[in-house]
User: Which sequence fits this backbone?
């Protein structure tokens, strides 16, 4: 059992965890989950563990971006972020942070541990850190820097936390099992087949006649249902960040200064190899072994061969101890101090770190590759311009906000800021095209102060580079539609209602006629202009019949004697008349129940239920305080 848990912890599940961490933080940055802001105001406290308000807001921002990205990947390109209820999102995210804290504490209370070797193995096997299929330390550093992580150790700590939670979950989910009785019951349900016959009675909407008097009566009874839509004509002025780029220039001296600052950040990298002998605390015996290995290397033995033979670091031993090129700030301080004190080709004395004793060899130096100024000039100028534009845009935004607030219309702000007034509409609350497809704009247009009081809206941020102010030029209130205007819609409503009722009545009558025995089912079907279709040995997973019909058939009670009848609604309002004749289970169902598929499914469901129960118990026992 313990080996099974260990295998699960090192399986594809763990690798996926590392990959997801890399993806999320590459997009959003370390700040989305780091707790380096613990001095901020407290959002919640879980058994003494503080969740800061800064941490909460960063996690909300992360969740918001992921939600928007997912919606747009699903084809909702015009989705507006303002439609997200931030209060509901914040409450959900806080629940998630609390749940995460509870699970980490549960894992710690269970004395679960993640070894450094496991973390090494996962990092080395992560494709994001590989070049040509091999782990590359330089690539690793680039990725975690792009993630915004302060160091390799920070990434290792994050991986450790996620693996602890996964290990805690696996302790329940990976150890669940299915009893023989449960497997047999599931096999009987899944392999069951049914014999039945069907008459399909369509809802003939177009064949239904609706009298003028019926239309008039429905109209008079439901007057409020037939109103013209409320519409507005909108004026708008838009301020864009991009408009300021042509208005700013940068000095050559500023470009030169930025260039010097950029190339100053390009640090020397060193390629190291090491031999690790693990030790807990000071260990004279391990130290003596390390010194003996160094003597062998100084005496002429190849460092890489000695590393393959003796190193206890599984991640690098197979590569002769090679750790690749790395800049400063990548290793344990004691390890790094020794590495950067070496000359190329030199081997250090044994170096003590929290992992044990290391012999370190500097195998190569890599001087920074400094691009010339002219090669970087365009990008540097754009960066400097962006800084200037940012200030100008912020100042202009504030000025426009003040003008819009103080003015009775948009004419004065437009003239002062050299902006054009655009007119949109008429448009309904649901929006239209262009600017009016933005839900935030339409919410502002129908806000009471804008719609009723005739004021300018507040400045609305469409995206990070665009703000807009609107005003309602014309308000077209809902008007009662005339009977002629509403007649077509009422006809459709009444036709659908009557066709559905007729189909249901025909289905009930058909069942009574068949049950009476006076007519054969085929004759009943023929009298309805339909066929009596028979099906044999149909399984739940059949693709030949509509899913709604299959669900209805398999929900019918097993016939105790004879047959069972039922009638069910079709999605379009028609009806299925069903005669259920028999329910069969394969003779070899007991043998099929031995299939691993059934055991895995039941074990998965049971394990998930067990883990959910543990979560609930931890939640009930936890001292949780929200602020």
Assistant:
């Amino acid at each position: 059992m313990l080996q099974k848990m260990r295998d699960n912890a090192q399986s594809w599940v763990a690798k996926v965890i590392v990959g997801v961490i890399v993806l999320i933080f590459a997009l959003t940055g370390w700040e989305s989950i780091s707790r380096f802001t613990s001095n901020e105001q407290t959002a919640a406290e879980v058994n003494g563990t503080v969740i800061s308000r800064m941490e909460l807001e960063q996690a909300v921002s992360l969740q918001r971006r992921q939600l928007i990205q997912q919606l747009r990947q699903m084809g909702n390109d015009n989705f507006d972020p303002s439609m997200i209820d931030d209060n509901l999102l914040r409450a959900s995210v806080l629940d998630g942070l609390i749940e995460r804290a509870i699970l980490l504490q549960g894992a710690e209370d269970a004395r679960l541990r993640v070894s450094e070797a496991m973390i090494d193995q996962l990092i080395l096997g992560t494709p994001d850190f590989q070049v040509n299929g091999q782990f590359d330390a330089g690539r690793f550093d680039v990725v975690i820097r792009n993630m915004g992580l302060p160091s390799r150790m920070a990434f290792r700590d994050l991986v450790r936390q996620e693996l602890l939670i996964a290990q805690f979950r696996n302790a329940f989910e990976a150890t669940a099992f299915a009893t023989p009785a449960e497997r047999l019951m599931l096999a009987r349900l899944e392999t069951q087949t049914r014999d039945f016959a069907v008459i399909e009675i369509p809802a003939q909407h177009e064949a239904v006649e609706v009298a003028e008097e019926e239309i008039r009566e429905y109209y008079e009874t439901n007057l409020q249902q037939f109103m013209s839509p409320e519409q507005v004509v909108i004026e708008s002025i838009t301020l864009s960040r991009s408009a300021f780029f042509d208005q700013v220039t940068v000095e050559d001296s500023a470009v030169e200064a930025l260039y010097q600052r950029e190339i100053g950040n390009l640090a020397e990298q060193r390629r190291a190899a090491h031999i690790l002998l693990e030790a807990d605390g000071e260990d004279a015996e391990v130290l003596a072994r390390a010194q003996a290995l160094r003597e062998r290397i100084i005496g002429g033995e190849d460092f890489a061969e000695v590393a393959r033979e003796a190193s206890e670091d599984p991640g690098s031993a197979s590569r002769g101890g090679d750790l690749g090129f790395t800049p400063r700030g990548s290793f344990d301080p004691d390890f790094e101090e020794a590495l950067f004190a070496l000359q190329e080709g030199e081997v250090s004395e044994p170096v003590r770190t929290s992992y044990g004793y290391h012999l370190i060899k500097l195998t190569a130096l890599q001087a920074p590759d400094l691009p010339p100024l002219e090669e970087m000039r365009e990008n540097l100028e754009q960066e400097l311009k962006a800084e200037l534009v940012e200030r100008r845009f912020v100042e202009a935004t504030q000025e426009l906000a003040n003008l819009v607030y103080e003015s009775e219309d948009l004419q004065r702000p437009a003239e002062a800021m050299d902006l054009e007034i655009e007119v949109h509409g008429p448009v309904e609350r649901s929006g239209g095209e262009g600017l009016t497809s933005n839900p935030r704009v339409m919410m502002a247009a129908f806000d009471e102060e804008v719609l009723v009081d005739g004021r300018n809206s507040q400045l609305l941020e469409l995206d990070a580079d665009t703000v807009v102010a609107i005003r309602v030029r014309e308000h077209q209130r809902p008007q009662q539609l005339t009977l002629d205007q509403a007649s077509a819609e009422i006809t459709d409503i009444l036709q659908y209602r009557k066709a559905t009722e007729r189909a249901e009545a025909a289905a009930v009558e058909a069942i009574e006629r068949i049950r009476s025995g006076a007519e054969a089912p085929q004759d009943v079907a023929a009298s309805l202009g339909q066929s009596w279709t028979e099906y044999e040995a149909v399984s739940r997973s059949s693709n030949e019949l509509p899913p709604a019909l299959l669900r209805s058939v398999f929900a019918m009670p097993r016939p105790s004697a004879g047959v069972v009848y039922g009638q069910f609604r079709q999605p379009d309002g028609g009806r299925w008349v069903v005669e259920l004749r028999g329910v069969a289970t394969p003779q070899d169902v007991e043998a099929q129940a031995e299939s691993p598929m059934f055991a895995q499914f039941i074990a998965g469901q049971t394990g998930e239920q067990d883990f959910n129960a543990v979560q609930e118990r931890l939640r009930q026992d936890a001292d949780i305080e929200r602020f």
Q: What stands out?
A: The longest strand covers residues 356-366. Residues 1-16, 22-40 have pLDDT under 50 and may be disordered. The radius of gyration is 36 Å.
